[in-house]
Each structure stands twice: as C-alpha cells, then as structure tokens.
Amino acid sequence: MIDDTLEELQESIQKAQESLRRELAKIRTGRAHPSLLDSVRVDNYGTQMPISQVSTINVPEARMLTIKPWDKSQVKAIEKAIVQSPLGLNPQNDGELIRVPLPPLTEERRKDLVKLARAAGEDTKVAIRHARREANDLLDGFKNDKEISEDDAERGKKKVDEVVQQGTGAVDAAVSKKEADILEV
Q1: 141-171: per-residue pLDDT in tens?
Q2: How many angstroms separate the CA atoms of 59 and 33, rounded?
Q3: Whole-model pTM?
Q4: Which of 32, 108, 118, 126 is the most exposed place for a label (fewest CB within 10 A)?
Q5: What is the CATH number of the domain that holds 128?
C-alpha cells in the first residue's frame, strides 16, 4: 500500500515536471528553436493544427527559423498564424518559404521571460505539493483503517517528503537552467 502510494506520487511529480518542460520550451530565449512555434495553430482546411503538422521547420541560423509548408497554398495561413500569435514575431514570406527572424531580446523583455519561467516553476511546485498532500492523506486513511501501523505511516510520510524534495529540486534546476539561457546574451 505504501509502495503504491509512493509510485502514484512519483507519477504525479513526473507529469508535473513534463508539463514544466513543455511550458519552458515555449518561452523564447535568444536562440531559434523549432519548439518555439509549438503553441501556434494554423487554420488548415477548417481545422486548427500545429505548424509542425503542416510544414517543416528548420533553424538555418542561430536567430532564424525557416518554415516550408507541405502545401504551398498554406503559406498565407501560416504567416497569418505567426503574426497573430503572442510571440511578437514578424515572418517574411517569399511564396514558398517563410523566414522568421528572431529579434534580439531587450533587457526588459529578458526579465519578463525570467518571471514567466519562475511562475511556471512555481505552478509546478504547487502541483507537486498537492500530490504530496494527497499521498499523505492516503497514508492517514490507511492508518485510520488499521491497514498499516502508525510507524509504517510515519516511515511512508518520510519517504513521501524525500520524493517531493527530489521533485522540487529537479524543478528548481530546470527553471534556473532556463533562466541562464534567457539571460545569456
């Protein structure tokens, strides 16, 4: 029972950390990366689809993305989706290929992006604490139902705290790595 509870806790923490990785990938650094456009949706014959599912995204230079649609009639729709996205990018269309230059980040914008990264990290920590609370409640329930002894419940809670500390440590490491990438000029 204690092992099952710990396993569920670890799964919850891993899901929260994976969500954090996806959120941090959306935050722009000074360098181009194809995952930067993951959140942008294109109207593809009446269906909203990610850009990566209707085109090929390449990084020819450190501050440039190129997008080559599989269907040339989608060039305008992709360009429109990028312009309307909250990324603040200005694509250049030559009829077949869309070039997206990434302007250098200002110091103020870098600080805003660091705040976004920290907020995503804090949201992940809240999710981890919520999972810890659920695990501790399960252990208390087992103890009250006399399925485990009080000593086993306390040992289980100590293991829960160890797992949570490892999880929050990994979150802190991921956020600080992203901060370093953002602040790097």
Answers
A1: 888 888 888 888 899 999 999 999 999 999 9
A2: 7
A3: 0.71
A4: 108
A5: 1.10.132.20
